[in-house]
Write a structure and sequence with these properties.
258 residues; alpha/beta; six-stranded parallel beta sheet; 6 helices; 17% strand; globular; binds nicotinamide-adenine-dinucleotide; oxidoreductase; mitochondrion; HOT; alcohol dehydrogenase (NAD+) activity; metal ion binding
Length: 258
């Protein structure tokens, strides 16, 4: 099991400046989308950076539902900035874009398709060191702050694909439930369905011991390796949470809309 590092708590975002200071970051790339750049989650993050004397630049052109083109724009920004740490504040779109920006700016001679999943890309293993990436999720569905996956639409083939490697998993996820209070109703509902689908997929996935052939080296082992007894416990727990709360929320959304 490759476990992710997260810190959870209402208001925990305020600590991000201290975390970056503790990492010795001197030049941070803060990524978000246009909509969020005017909202309290990003403001709270910037206040913490200023308070702790962290030098940062903002990239707020993240595309909601990223594409290869939008990934490449973010990668260009990251390459030019020569950053020593990355900070993603947003939903899966922002966190995934930031992972790609960190990866390709750390591997500047790679072609975009080198790390994209085969057969669309070459699915090369990542062997270069990446910069630290802190993710502050503002939605509650993708769990991108815990995964080594970055998803995008590959426009040319009209397919949704991604990059999957443990190397792009955020160094730290700061999970602050206060951010979800700003989500529009539809984003709450869709995030809830994301949780439902992730949990169902995990629980019904082929068990890890039934997958074959075994990769030739641990570095080529896929990010998702099938279900296992521990992921089953979490998947069932997530399904119970969805069963209890998603319907309750949807009812309040319907009455709001009426
Ligand atoms: N990397 C992974 O492991 C993984 C897993 C599942 C999905 N994904 C990807 O994540 C993307 C979807 O991410 P998402 O559902 O988190 O949403 P998102 O990042 O696409 O954002 C959706 C919308 O909600 C807004 N928003 C987000 N948080 C808000 C807040 N707190 N207050 C107000 N507005 C807010 C955004 O500005 C945007 O307009 C898709 O591209 C999907 O493929 C990634």
């Amino acid at each position: 099991m490759a476990v992710s590092t997260i810190r959870y708590g209402a208001g925990v975002t305020k600590e991000v400046g201290m975390d970056l200071q503790n990492m010795g970051a001197k030049n941070v790339c803060l990524m978000t989308d246009k909509n969020l750049s005017h909202l309290p989650p990003v403001q709270t993050v910037m206040d913490s950076l200023v308070k702790n004397g962290i030098n940062f630049k903002v990239y707020d052109h993240v595309r909601v539902e990223p594409t290869d083109t939008s990934f490449m724009e973010a990668i260009e920004f990251a390459k030019k900035g020569a950053f020593d740490a990355f900070l993603a504040v947003g939903g899966g779109s922002t966190i995934d874009t930031c992972k790609a920006a960190n990866l390709y700016s750390s591997s500047p001679d790679s072609d975009f398709l080198d790390y994209v999943n085969a057969p669309i890309g070459k699915g090369k293993p990542v062997t270069v060191p990446l910069k630290p990436l802190i993710a502050v999720p503002t939605t509650s569905g993708t769990g991108s702050e815990t995964t080594g996956v970055a998803i995008f639409d590959y426009e040319h083939l009209k397919v949704k694909t991604g990059i999957a490697s443990r190397a792009i998993k955020p160094t730290l996820g700061l999970v602050d439930p206060l951010h979800t209070l700003h989500m529009p109703g539809r984003v709450v509902a869709n995030s809830g369905f994301d949780v439902l689908c992730h949990a169902l997929e995990s629980y019904t996935a082929l068990p890890y011991h039934m997958r074959s052939p075994c990769p030739s080296s641990p570095i080529t082992r896929p990010a998702y390796q099938g279900s296992n007894p521990i992921s089953d416990i979490w998947a069932v727990h997530a399904l119970r949470i969805v069963a209890k709360y998603l319907k309750r929320y949807s009812r309040s959304l319907t009455s709001e809309e009426e």
